[in-house]
């Protein structure tokens, strides 16, 4: 096999098709990206209590995220240390121990080996050394409910790695009561295409009026004077106040909030039409008076696309998770979020807010994302053209006065591809690096 | 509220907490063998209605399909096998009347790339069982479906059971008050979920 030369494959203005089509590059991503840097694994609300577990992946590695019996969040490899079978086959639940269905080896939820059936048949004591404890991700850290892990001992701290993308994440959370949300099931899709096609798209303000043309027409079908939903933001995309930002370490952000007036009710006013809107709104207004506008805003999608490299896309009220399956297949799960009223500040309105909020979240995956996914698949198909290998991301490049750089954050107009160019530079540095990945076997 | 525009095609006043409560109740414990109707005109009408629905969808006759639904209706594809409360969990799809019309409108724009060209489908509906309810003229109908979709050069399958809540319109035909589609793989990541089930 030819040595991969990422300087030849990734240029300032274009990248080579093989980034999307070459299984060897995908294999390398599984250590350099998915393992070599911090990767989103799960949300705390998926492991709410001691002994809760949630099954997920780190790249292709099967992982069980647990909150163990002492309350520590861990990412255990879902792989028996005997013959390699997965030991956990439920999607999520509660368990103090995991017992391998194949030969009965058992482990506690901190990953320690508990027992080996008929161990007098072995010439050694399995518990005398730690190599038979479950492997686990050695560095697991949580930022405000988002659980990340990396196998790279030399990676910076999670906080440092996230850097300025923490600000929009904080904003996104802090608009909800108690500064938190819980996940509440998902719209689940997959596409026959490379995972980066979705990451490329995640702050792309250029595709909206084209890829989502049918959704925009649908949203405007009543011919109202005031455009709703996505159409609200499509007006004058580059001259308007909507901006894309690049934060470093692969993270980027499209911020559509500046298009809205800064007052309660503004987010709700431009929300598209969803089941139950008018009835619930009338009831919320009648019951909660002055507070109603703020409550209705919680039912509406906040117009932010926060993209945490490589696999966490926070948009509207969704937490979208990308899961690479192969060089040309990706799962994309759009988890819904609900508000919780732990301190009673919503005065019982959380039930109605969430009833609306479920519906406002379902529309885009069903009537918008499906068209994007089709276009991603058709890119993958188009990239079969070997002799025409370049994929361009140079919109805005070379134009004067188009970008600002402030405290390391690069910002440009809504349709600019600057965020793609910048994240690809980071991707290139990861792919060129040779980190030593490690696992741990838990605490002694 | 009476002077509001309450046409369910253009506004959504009927999908209230009480509506959801009623829906959850209606779709719980309806399949009591004592309520089964194995023959007679209601069984015939309900079966005919399901077959007609499948044909309209296969033929892309979406306006005709919409005409099978009551003015205030629900179209519900749970995203979990346990079918939780749609007020608390994301559904695969939960449409009211207006959003059903949105769905059809979008497909008919010609710019819904996920359906350009449109999938061809062939729907098998079988195992139809009809149950009466406590309300005269309202029936629950369970059926199994196997929908084959030809899309993007491939044949693929949508499989599960559907539960229709039907009422007898004054013209003698049956209309759909609510349709619940229980996909076998409702909680799996599915490629291009853009056909109408």
UniProtKB/TrEMBL annotation, chain A:
One of its GO terms (molecular function) is 2 iron, 2 sulfur cluster binding. Pfam families: Rieske (PF00355), Ring_hydroxyl_A (PF00848). It comes from the Bacteria. Keywords: 2Fe-2S, Iron, Iron-sulfur, Metal-binding, Oxidoreductase. InterPro entries: Rieske_2Fe-2S, Rieske_2Fe-2S_sf, Ring_hydroxy_dOase_asu_C_dom, Rng_hydr_dOase-A. Residues 39-149 form the Rieske domain. PANTHER family: 3-PHENYLPROPIONATE_CINNAMIC ACID DIOXYGENASE SUBUNIT ALPHA (PTHR43756:SF1), CHOLINE MONOOXYGENASE, CHLOROPLASTIC (PTHR43756). Belongs to the bacterial ring-hydroxylating dioxygenase alpha subunit family. This is Rieske 2Fe-2S domain-containing protein. It comes from Pacificispira spongiicola.
TrEMBL record, chain B:
One of its GO terms (molecular function) is dioxygenase activity. GO terms for biological process: 3-phenylpropionate catabolic process. Belongs to the bacterial ring-hydroxylating dioxygenase beta subunit family. InterPro entries: NTF2-like_dom_sf, Rng_hydr_dOase-bsu. The keyword Zinc does not apply. It comes from Pacificispira spongiicola. Keywords: Dioxygenase, Oxidoreductase. Pfam families: Ring_hydroxyl_B (PF00866). The lineage of its organism: Bacteria, Pseudomonadati, Pseudomonadota, Alphaproteobacteria, Rhodospirillales. Signal peptide: none annotated. It comes from the Bacteria. This is Aromatic-ring-hydroxylating dioxygenase subunit beta.
């Amino acid at each position: 096999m030819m040595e991969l030369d990422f300087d030849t494959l990734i240029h300032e203005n274009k990248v080579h098709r093989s980034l999307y089509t070459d299984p060897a590059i995908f294999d390398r991503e599984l250590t350099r990206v998915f393992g070599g840097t911090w990767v989103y694994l799960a949300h705390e609300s998926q492991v709410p209590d001691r002994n809760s577990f949630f099954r997920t992946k780190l790249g292709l590695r099967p992982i069980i995220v647990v909150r163990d019996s002492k309350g520590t969040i861990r990412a255990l490899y879902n792989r028996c240390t005997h013959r390699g079978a997965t030991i956990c086959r439920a999607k999520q639940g509660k368990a103090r121990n995991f017992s391998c269905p194949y030969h009965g080896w058992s482990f506690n939820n901190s990953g320690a080996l508990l027992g080996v059936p008929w161990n007098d048949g072995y010439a050694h004591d399995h518990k005398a050394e730690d190599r038979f404890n479950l492997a686990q991700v050695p560095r697991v850290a949580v930022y405000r409910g988002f659980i990340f892990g990396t196998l790279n001992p030399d990676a910076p701290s999670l906080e440092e790695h996230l850097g300025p993308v923490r600000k929009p994440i904080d904003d996104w959370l802090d608009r909800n009561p108690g500064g938190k949300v819980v996940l509440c099931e998902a719209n689940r899709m997959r596409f026959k295409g490379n995972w980066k096609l979705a990451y490329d798209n995640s702050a792309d303000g250029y595709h909206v009026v084209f890829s989502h043309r049918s959704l925009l027409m649908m949203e405007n079908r009543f011919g109202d004077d005031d455009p709703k939903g996505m159409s609200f933001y499509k007006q004058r995309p580059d001259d308007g106040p909507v901006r894309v930002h690049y934060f470093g370490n692969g993270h980027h952000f499209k911020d559509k909030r500046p298009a809205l007036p800064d007052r309660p009710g503004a987010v709700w006013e431009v929300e598209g039409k969803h089941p139950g809107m008018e009835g619930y709104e009338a009831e919320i207004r009648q019951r909660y008076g002055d507070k109603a506008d703020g409550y209705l805003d919680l039912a509406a999608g906040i117009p932010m696309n926060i993209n945490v490299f490589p696999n966490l896309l926070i948009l509207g009220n969704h937490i979208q998770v990308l899961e690479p399956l192969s060089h040309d297949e990706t799962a994309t799960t759009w988890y819904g979020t609900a508000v919780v009223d732990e301190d009673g500040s919503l005065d019982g309105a959380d039930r109605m807010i969430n009833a609306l909020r479920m519906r406002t979240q379902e529309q885009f995956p069903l009537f918008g994302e499906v068209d994007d996914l089709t276009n991603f698949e058709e890119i993958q198909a188009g990239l079969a053209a070997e002799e025409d290998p370049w994929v361009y991301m140079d919109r805005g490049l070379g134009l004067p006065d188009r970008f600002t750089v402030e405290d390391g954050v690069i910002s440009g107009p809504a349709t600019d591809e600057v965020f793609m160019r910048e994240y690809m530079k980071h991707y290139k540095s990861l792919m060129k690096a040779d980190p030593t990945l490690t696992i741990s076997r838990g605490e002694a | 509220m009476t002077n509001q525009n309450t046409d369910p095609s253009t506004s959504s006043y009927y999908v209230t907490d009480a509506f959801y409560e009623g829906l959850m109740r209606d779709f719980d414990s309806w399949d009591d063998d004592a309520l089964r109707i194995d023959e007679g005109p209601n069984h015939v009408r309900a079966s005919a209605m399901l077959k007609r629905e499948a044909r309209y969808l296969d033929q892309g006759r979406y306006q005709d399909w919409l005409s099978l639904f009551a003015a205030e209706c629900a179209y519900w594809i749970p995203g979990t096998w346990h079918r939780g409360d749609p007020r608390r969990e994301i559904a695969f799809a939960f449409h009211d009347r207006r959003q059903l019309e949105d769905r059809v409108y979008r497909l008919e724009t010609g710019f819904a790339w996920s359906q350009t060209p449109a999938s061809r489908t062939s729907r098998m509906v079988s195992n139809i069982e009809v149950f009466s309810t406590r309300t005269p003229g309202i029936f629950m109908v369970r059926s199994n479906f196997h929908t084959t979709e030809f899309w993007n050069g491939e044949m693929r399958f949508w499989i599960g059971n559907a539960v229709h809540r039907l009422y007898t319109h004054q013209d003698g035909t049956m209309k759909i008050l609510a349709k619940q589609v229980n996909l076998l793989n409702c909680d799996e990541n599915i490629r291009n979920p853009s056909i109408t089930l």
